[in-house]
Amino acid sequence: MLALVVACLFFSAQSPRFLTLGNVSLITQQVMVVGVLAIGQTLVILTAGIDLSCGMLMALGGVTMTLLAGKAGMSAPVAIAAGIGATTFAGFLNGWLVTRVKLPPFIVTLGTMNIAFALTQIVSSSQTVTDLPQLFTTLGTTVPLFGTRIAYGTVVMLLLYGLAWWLLRETAGGRHVYAVGNNREASRLSGIDTERLLLVVYTMAGALYGVASLLAVARTGVGDPQAGQTENLDTVTAVVLGGTSLFGGRGVILGSLVGALIVGVFRNGLTLMGMSSVYQILVTGALVILAVATDQWSRRHA
């Protein structure tokens, strides 16, 4: 929170447009996709795993649902369900390979990231999908609130964070996620079905990536096969900046929302300052290194 406040103060001093209500609304709209992806990434990282495929799965889900609705003539609700179903199945596949085949999460998700990217390009012929039904853009529309406008997608993101916070804090399954992240073998010996839990976590993460793909389509109004190429770095940055340890077992889901806002504030502020997008990526990389270094220091100190 302190880093977020300092960043806001810095960019407000650099540009008078930064703290305007319209720009704050824009930041929340820009953050909603990464924010939802970060929920799934947080669940995976809490179990001491990592998911490098989140951005590409989001792109695959978006292209799937838009192609089915825009080209195949399928009804919008069914097409959306099919797109979310595709990412959910991909998440299940990640979990199955981690738990049954005993492959490291890094290798598994690196492989599925490349597979998802290739499938996205193949099924879309690398072409943007347009002329979508109105339902696809509903979550991208805004409503007036406190003198500004907020997107329905932002509300969906906040509701999902509230649900994830409740599940992790108030349910036995949520506590088991932390336990497995702290010590998987000890959790297994204490009676927790660790393989089943990990399979559920990766599957839930896949479903969340599908929701994020719908939000991305709603925000842009098209199915973009080039989407999602930096979101894996953005989500890891958001999660680690939010206080979740890359070694698992420690973190608060709401911290990932703060981390996503930090990423969004930096990118928006640098844009207002006229900085190239290359420098935005550079700053994002520096932020994740700083956050991991801080996590390492706090673990050694503890």
Strand content is under 5%
Structural class: mainly alpha
Low-confidence stretches: none
Helix content: over 70%
User: How is the biggest beta sheet arranged?
Assistant: 2 strands, antiparallel
SSE arrangement, N to C: HHHHHEEHHHHHHH
The CA-CA distance between the termini, in Å, is 21 Å
What is the gyration radius calculated from CA atoms? 19 Å
What average pLDDT do the residues reach?
A: 92
- How many beta-strand runs? 2
Keywords:
302 residues, mainly alpha, 12 helices, 73% helix, globular
Task: Describe, in plain words, how this protein is organized in 3D.
By secondary structure, this protein is mainly alpha-helical. It has a domain at 30-227. Helices cover 73% and strands 3% of the residues. Strands 1-2 form a two-stranded antiparallel sheet. Strand 1 (142-145) and strand 2 (148-151) form a beta hairpin. Helix 6 packs across helix 7 (172-182). The two termini are 21 Å apart. The model has no long low-confidence stretch (mean pLDDT 92).
